[in-house]
Amino acid sequence: MKKRAAWIAAGAIAAVAVAASLVWFLIPRGSAEDQALAYLQAVADGDVAAVEATGLDVPATTASAFADASDRLSEGAIVSSTADDHSAVVTVSYELAGTRHESTLKLSQREGHWVPNAATAFGSVQYSVAAGIAGTVLPADRVALLPAVYEVSAAPAEFLDGSATVEVLPGVTQEVDVDATLRPEAADAAQAQLDEYLATCTKPAAETLPSCGIAIPLAADFSAVSEIRYRIEQTPVVALTPSAFQADGGVLVATVTGTALDGSTKTLTYRSTNWTVRGDVTFTDDDIVLSVW
């Protein structure tokens, strides 16, 4: 029985050793040039798992966008390389969108293996508006993408039209202007959002709220105000651009109760026929957001 137990234990140790060796096997061995070619081939194949096997961490958004790339590189080759015991610089060439390109990949030693530097392996893109690649919505900040050609659409598509074709190259940072135009649905959503905001602005209160476009000449008639009640006769109508809005033509009636300058209780009604609000427009993954000045 003891011999059997010892044999099982030894077998378990061997299995652990084999598993460990399999983990290392996922990262290709060889020279920095071999590893650079392995990276290019993984990108050419559209194989994110193989890209990560070179030692790179591919974020989920990057991987999702890469799956919907419209064109990938091909014919990867080594142009030149230099290396010491700890780092290497490999110049590679490849075909993308019908053009031959050269890029420089930096690699470093990690536990005996050459690993590409993410800053030289990925491209970096910043879009002028929120953007999406097929079903992947890209974050508003600069985003890392694997080398490929991408068809980028303004987002959210419910509110914006516009697209751009982007060639992402290793180690290249670029800003991309997506020529976005507003869909009619954007104005409808913005008007509904503004109406809700102005309803909050016009709740009964003892003072006017800031950033509501309401200016009542109270100081000319009152030393103190106890209540202001509003009636919206016409909500300001929104006009949009992709980055700003202006809402004009509002008609607002305010009934003010308070203490008159002579100390008596007084109620007056004011009417404005040019109620106007302005502000910024931004877009999230799936909505339009108004920020009133």
Write up this protein.
With 293 residues, this protein is of the alpha+beta class. It has 2 domains: 2-181, no CATH class; 183-292, no CATH class. 25% of the residues lie in helices and 44% in strands. The protein contains 6 helices and 18 strands. The chain has helices at 2-25, 32-45, 48-53, 60-67, 118-121, 184-201; strands at residues 74-83, 87-96, 99-110, 113-116, 123-127, 131-133, 136-138, 143-145, 148-154, 160-161, 163-168, 173-176, 181-182, 222-234, 237-240, 244-260, 265-283, 288-292. Strands 14, 15, 16, 17 and 18 form a 5-stranded antiparallel β-sheet that branches. The relative contact order is 0.10.
Features:
alpha+beta, four-stranded antiparallel β-sheet, 6 helices, 25% helix
Low-confidence region ranges:
1-28
Nearest-integer average pLDDT: 89
Gross morphology: elongated
Number of strands: 18
Alpha-carbon Rg, integer: 31 Å
Helix fraction, binned, reads 25-40%
> What oligomeric state do the depicted chains represent?
single chain
Q: What class would the helix/strand composition place it in?
A: alpha+beta
| Proportion of strand residues | 35-45%
Number of domains: 2
User: Helical stretch count?
Assistant: 6
End-to-end span in angstroms? 82 Å
What sequence of helices (H) and strands (E) makes up the elements?
HHHHEEEEHEEEEEEEEEHEEEEE
Main sheet characteristics: 5 strands, antiparallel
Summarize the structure.
The chain is α+β, with helices and mostly antiparallel strands and about 290 residues long. The chain has 6 helices and 18 strands. The protein has 2 domains: about 180 residues, no CATH class; about 110 residues, no CATH class.
